[in-house]
Amino acid sequence: MNTLTIIGSQWGDEGKGKIADMLSEDADWVVRYNGGPNAGHTVVDDTGEFKFHHLPSASLHEDCRVLLGPGMVINPIGLVEELDQLQEKRAIEPDIFLGARAHVITPYHPVVEVLEKAKEEVGTTGRGIGPTYEDKAARSGFRINDLFRSDFEDRFRDRLEKLKERWDDPSDLDRIEEDRFFDVVDRLRDMVSEAKIVNSSPVLNKAIDEGKSVIFEGAQGTLLDIDFGTYPYVTSSNPTVGGIGTGAGVSPTRVERRIGVVKAYTTRVGKGPMPTEDEGDLGERLRDNGDEYGATTGRPRRCGPLDLVGLKFALDLNDMTEIALTKLDVLSGFDEIKVASHYMKDGEKITEFPSTAEELSECEPSYITFEGWDEDISHASSLEDLPSEAQGYVDFLEKELDVPISIVSIGKKRSQTIMVD
Ligand code: GDP
Ligand code: IMO
Ligand code: MG
Questions:
Q1: Catalytic status, residue 13
Q2: Distance CA 173, CA 265 (A)
């Protein structure tokens, strides 16, 4: 099968970067279709750790073409920095293509995010994601192809002046360094020539028709989806399988393997309900063992046991064909492992993930408990190498979620991965 997608099944940071890097070694194209530099995808290779924000995690594989799809929001300053870092740290210049229709995060978008209080009230990453998608919906945004037009600078200045009229105190907008931004846009035009600003739909559909291997790398996670997540505590795009249709121009029906990345426990960054959050010892131990600090903002992640209610919703919504279970090694050393099988609300059993954040915040998780294991499992090479309790946990999840677990990740490195046949 030549087409696959890697999608987060929880609230992001499931380990998509590691899985995408592993599966893209021989890929022809790897495509990001949603979000922007709010993503932080970590890949560990022989040289060390690299964190991707705009670029797909396949960018370390030099033969692979990488495409930042039209559903993305792209910050020229951040993208140029990322390309420079890849050059400095790995001497790699990825073969990069940009969707002509992708929207541009300008220096005023992160400022607007603060003025709109989204950072404070939603706990956003502060990367200007929401305001850029707002401009897209309001039909007042700049798209990547606009960067190549001679009137871009004039249009940008006009837009900034108009924006200032919206706020009583626009002094933060006065501090924007327009000339620095235009210099970076010039550099980006040099680094990615106009020939590589593409109409993604025909390009990718043709590649699929020719039997090329095409991978769609989701950012964020299903429960952060603007439509199906815990609104308003969500991101502003569709990380889910439907996002591939609108964000890459390829029908989701063409994507044969849909791999849901599932962390062996739950984490969340930013605000919003998380029924299994543990603010005591368990949460702290998971954070320490799992090194649960944001790859983009460095914020500590909220941690707790696995939540089957949210997971089942996510797996169904995306019609996942496989699961990549990550960070199982982090559970070593716990006497017992808890998993939320359902919620209770007003004395009633809830098995379906609620559609409002209010309702979810009133749900109390009900747990089933498994015996834990002590052994370090980070060097296991097959499921049979795992202690029986860990094997039992994997078996239970596969049966309960009714989706085959095809990958079990037991460490940050590529070698710490069990491919289940
Ligand atoms: P992403 O946003 O889904 O790509 O995930 P992040 O990169 O933000 O966070 C996942 C973190 O867990 C990164 O630091 C990874 O290096 C690390 N990681 C991935 N898989 C495993 C695993 O199986 N075990 C451990 N211990 N760490 C892992
Ligand atoms: P990856 O791709 C985890 C969260 C933010 C905030 C909400 C909205 O690394 O899994 P935004 O800046 O998108 O408007 O913030 O979404 N968020 C993420 N959480 N992983 C991510 O990406 C995230 N991207 C956004 O913390 O709660
Ligand atoms: Mg991340």
A1: yes
A2: 41
